[in-house]
């Protein structure tokens, strides 16, 4: 149906309409039972504070619906007013995408959606998307069950499960999104629907890797696992110069592809500032979920090929002890407030078929040992093991989910905060990380097929379509045009034209 031509007298009213648009919107969005914050309200600044204080955004409103119908109604109002609508779950997006990633979005905070319903006999759990990872781990642990996910207890399941969800159990159990059975969601037109392998299968595919561009998930049904009986968190550390650190990274690359490496071995290389210019602190940190007596023999081939250790610690316990230890804080997020940071982060997913060569590794370690030593930032880099032998992540067929990276060896996270974790962010911090990633890619073979991780989203990634979504972008775009033609769920690095 074509829109009706406006009667001439309505044009006279147009300037008045624009003038009063803000108050109209406010009254349209003032819904019984839904708390809200509008610009100028006390509490608006708190409600719009990003986790990354590098971003200050001004949404048109932040609303806290309590029911799916209220949420759907808000989406319809947003669409009718040509607003971009954004869900916020844990608010931990690196680029404030829970606030829409740019000014003027309508934010739907999921905080009231905190139900968790566990069915121990089917080993499934329906988790509403206002929940944080720490609270989810506690709730599942009451049943002796667990889900693979990241370590920070305050991260929300809404963003985490949309884009990946990596933890030290992921080589054994896959990413968080690999364990989704179905998703209840609201579409851009306000329809309330469900997606699973049988219901809206195309949408189900898209939601697991690019969810925020397609809908607002209200609850997610997961298959969950019996918790491992014992977990040992291990931390080995070396102080190495550039050449030795570059070699050590290769030693790790060779170690992880040995066919016998068990899936119960989850690990990352942690790189931090060295004690002197020209050195780096090189750590192997991870969690062992198998028979405790087999950890040493599993790591032995790696240690044998490395220089002598500077330090090692083992922290053993049961499953929830390990989750708690890795969190470094309380898992119950209502018992203590969250923190904020001011930072820039990047990621690089290395292809297993073409591990980092010597020139790339040397450029990487050189950057850390010199530019990193004098950098006006506090930084850490994590070389997370996604692949290697027997990895569940890479056993999933590439086309099974929109998450495209099923043949990466590592996801390297580059993370640099301002020194006092507060604004302003120093310009040199951008240059430091851009130089590092540039040093790795420019020293790699032409056409090196690297990716970037959507959960470590960055605002300055120019080739984001290729790096985040790869060969899946065209299929995602076709579906986006069908389900959200007016871009209700658009944001700066999402799926759009
Ligand atoms: C301290 C810290 C530690 C981290 N550790 C890990 C880790 O160990 N492993 C790992 O994989 N990642 C990790 N991350 C990254 C984290 O997974 C992402 O930042 C994640 O997207 C955050 O989700 P959120 O719900 O908290 O964020 P939000 O900012 O609320 O949301 C992120 C994006 O998802 C969208 N979204 C949120 N809820 C919904 C919903 N219900 N439906 C549809 N879209 C939604 C938002 O609109 C936004 O685009 C970490 C992040 C931080 C800050
Ligand atoms: C600020 O917002 C947080 C949630 O993001 C909330 O828990 C807290 O109570 C708010 N503080 C105030 C003073 O309103
Ligand atoms: C959003 O608006 C605020 C306040 O006007 C401004 O400081 C900020 O730079 C804007 N952000 C973007 C991404 O435009
Ligand atoms: C959450 O669970 C409670 C109790 O089971 C129920 O009353 C409520 O409707 C649920 N909330 C939602 C949003 O489903
Ligand atoms: C967290 O603690 C609060 C009380 O402070 C309690 O009501 C809640 O059930 C706890 N949550 C979990 C997941 O254990
Ligand atoms: C929205 O829901 C209605 C009624 O359930 C259905 O007829 C329609 O096809 C749905 N539209 C979309 C885009 O899913
Ligand atoms: C620097 O690295 C060298 C070579 O790996 C090592 O022998 C030395 O102990 C390191 N020095 C410091 C202070 O870390
Ligand atoms: C494992 O090796 C460490 C040294 O890396 C040693 O301290 C520990 O006793 C060993 N544990 C077992 C069970 O052999
Ligand atoms: C380092 O950055 C902080 C802000 O994060 C700034 O206050 C300080 O002056 C900077 N120092 C140098 C030496 O650049």
Question: What does the model show?
Answer:
This protein has 497 residues and is of the alpha+beta class. The protein folds into 3 domains: 32-109, Uridine Diphospho-n-acetylenolpyruvylglucosamine Reductase, domain 2 (2-Layer Sandwich), CATH 3.30.43.10; 116-227, Uridine Diphospho-n-acetylenolpyruvylglucosamine Reductase, domain 3 (2-Layer Sandwich), CATH 3.30.465.10; 231-472, Vanillyl-alcohol Oxidase, Chain A, domain 3, CATH 3.40.462.20. 30% of the residues lie in helices and 23% in strands. It has helices at 8-12, 14-19, 21-28, 44-47, 68-80, 133-141, 157-163, 170-173, 201-210, 242-256, 295-304, 319-327, 358-374, 427-442, 464-469, 473-483; strands at residues 35-37, 61-64, 85-88, 106-109, 116-119, 124-128, 145-146, 180-186, 192-196, 216-223, 225-226, 231-241, 265-273, 279-288, 311-317, 343-351, 377-385, 408-418. Strands 15-12-14-13-17-18-16 form a 7-stranded antiparallel β-sheet. Residues 293, 296, 312 line the site of one 2-acetamido-2-deoxy-beta-D-glucopyranose.
Kindly summarize this structure in a few lines:
The chain is α+β, with helices and mostly antiparallel strands. The chain is built from 16 helices and 18 strands. The radius of gyration is 23 Å and the shape is globular.
Helix content: 25-40%
List all distinct small molecules, including ions and cofactors, that are bound in this structure. flavin-adenine dinucleotide, 2-acetamido-2-deoxy-beta-D-glucopyranose
Number of strands: 18
Strand portion: 15-25%
Q: How would a crystallographer describe the biggest sheet?
A: 7 strands, antiparallel
- Tally of alpha and pi helices: 16
Structural class, from helix and strand content? alpha+beta
How many structural domains in the coordinates? 3
Strand order of the largest sheet: 15-12-14-13-17-18-16
- What is the CATH class name of the largest domain? Alpha Beta
Q: Average pLDDT value? A: 96
Instruction: Give the termini distance in whole angstroms.
Output: 24 Å
Radius of gyration equals: 23 Å
Instruction: Please give the CATH architecture of the largest domain.
Output: 3-Layer(aba) Sandwich
- What's the CATH topology name of the largest domain? Vanillyl-alcohol Oxidase, Chain A, domain 3
């Amino acid at each position: 149906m074509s829109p009706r031509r406006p009667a001439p007298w309505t044009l006279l009213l147009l300037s008045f309409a624009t003038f009063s648009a803000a108050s109209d919107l406010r009254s349209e969005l003032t819904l019984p039972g839904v708390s809200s914050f509008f610009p100028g309200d006390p509490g608006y600044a708190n409600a719009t504070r990003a986790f990354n204080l590098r971003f200050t955004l001004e949404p048109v409103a932040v609303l806290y619906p309590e029911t799916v119908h209220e949420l759907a109604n808000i989406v319809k109002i947003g669409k009718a007013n040509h607003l971009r609508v954004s869900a916020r779950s844990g608010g931990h997006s690196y680029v404030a995408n829970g606030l829409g990633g740019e000014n003027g979005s309508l934010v739907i905070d999921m905080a009231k959606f905190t139900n968790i319903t566990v069915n121990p006999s089917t080993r499934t759990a329906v988790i509403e998307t206002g929940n944080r990872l720490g609270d989810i781990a506690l709730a599942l642990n009451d049943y002796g069950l667990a889900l693979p996910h990241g370590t920070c207890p305050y991260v929300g399941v809404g963003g985490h499960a949309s884009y990946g969800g990596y933890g030290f159990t992921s080589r054994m159990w896959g990413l968080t999104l690999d364990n989704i059975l179905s998703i209840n969601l609201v579409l851009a037109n306000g329809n309330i629907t469900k997606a699973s392998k049988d219901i809206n299968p195309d949408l189900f595919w898209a939601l697991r890797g690019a969810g925020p561009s397609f809908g607002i998930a209200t609850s997610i049904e997961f298959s969950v696992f019996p918790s491992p009986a014992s977990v040992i968190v291990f931390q080995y550390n070396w102080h190495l110069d550039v050449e030795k650190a570059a070699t050590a990274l290769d030693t790790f690359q060779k170690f992880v592809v040995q066919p016998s490496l068990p899936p119960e071995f989850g690990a990352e290389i942690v790189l931090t500032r060295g004690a002197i210019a020209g050195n780096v602190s090189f750590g192997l940190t991870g969690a062992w979920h198998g028979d405790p007596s087999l950890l040493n023999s599993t790591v032995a081939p790696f240690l044998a090929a490395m220089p002598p250790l500077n330090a090692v610690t083992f922290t053993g316990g049961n499953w929830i002890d390990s989750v708690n230890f890795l969190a470094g804080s309380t898992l119950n997020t209502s018992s203590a407030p969250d923190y904020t940071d001011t930072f820039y982060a990047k990621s690089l997913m290395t292809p297993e078929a073409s591990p980092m060569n010597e020139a790339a590794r040397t450029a990487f370690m050189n950057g850390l040992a010199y530019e990193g030593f004098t950098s006006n930032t506090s930084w850490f880099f994590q070389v997370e093991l996604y692949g290697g032998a027997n990895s569940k992540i890479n056993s999933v067929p590439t086309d099974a989910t929109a998450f495209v990276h099923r043949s990466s060896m590592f996801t390297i996270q580059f993370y640099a905060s301002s020194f006092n974790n507060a604004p302003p962010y120093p310009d040199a911090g951008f240059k430091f990380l851009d130089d590092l990633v540039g040093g790795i890619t420019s020293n790699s073979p032409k056409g090196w097929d690297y990716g970037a991780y959507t959960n470590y989203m960055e605002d300055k990634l120019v080739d984001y379509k290729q790096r985040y979504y790869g060969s899946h972008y065209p299929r995602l775009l076709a579906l986006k045009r069908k389900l959200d033609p007016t871009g209700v769920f658009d944001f700066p690095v999402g799926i759009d034209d």
